[in-house]
Design brief:
Blueprint lengths: L6 H17 L11 H18 L3 H18 L1 H4 L5 H20 L3 H15 L1 H10 L5 H20 L4
Length: 161
């Protein structure tokens, strides 16, 4: 007998809860009518579906959407100083790390993503510290994305054993 999926009912509940919050009849928190709340609710539905069926793809997508939704919903209140780019890279890295605990793959990749996110988050402080030590940082500031692309292409096209 085929298992019945709970994804469709959960998605409908997520959309209905979002519509209810958006209507303004209930005020739970500031910004409850933003798109990020819907992304978080849909992410929770996907995450629950993934946990129920032991599907790491749904769990990963749900965790990503939920974390991004929570970040953008509460950004002004709690994360106002954070750089969106660095935080999203960090969210991807942490979600991949959580997935790697179950699947035993992508462990190094997730740790590297987290390290890159921390580098991006502290980039300005690192550059200021290097400048105070009279170390030139203009090339690093200008060309680090090109270096990342070059290393990524090199890793992508190297022959794997």
């Amino acid at each position: 007998m085929k298992k019945k999926s709970v994804l469709l009912p959960l998605l409908l509940i997520a959309v209905a809860v979002y519509a209810f919050l958006r209507s303004g009849r209930v005020s739970l928190f500031d910004g409850q009518e933003e798109w990020s709340v819907l992304a978080g609710l849909v992410g929770l539905a996907l995450f629950y579906q993934g946990q129920k069926e032991a599907d790491s793809a749904h769990s990963f997508a749900g965790l990503l959407m939920t974390a991004i939704g929570v970040y953008f919903t509460f950004k002004e209140d709690y994360f106002s100083r954070a750089d969106d780019f660095a935080v999203i890279v960090l969210i991807f890295g942490v979600a991949l790390l959580v997935k790697s605990f179950k699947t035993k793959e992508y462990q190094y990749e997730s740790l590297l993503m987290i390290a890159v996110a921390l580098y991006l988050y502290f980039f300005r402080q690192i550059a200021a510290w290097l400048k105070s030590a009279n170390i030139e940082t203009a090339y690093v500031e200008a060309y680090w994305p090109a270096a990342f692309i070059a290393v990524s292409l090199l890793l992508l096209f190297l022959k794997r054993k």
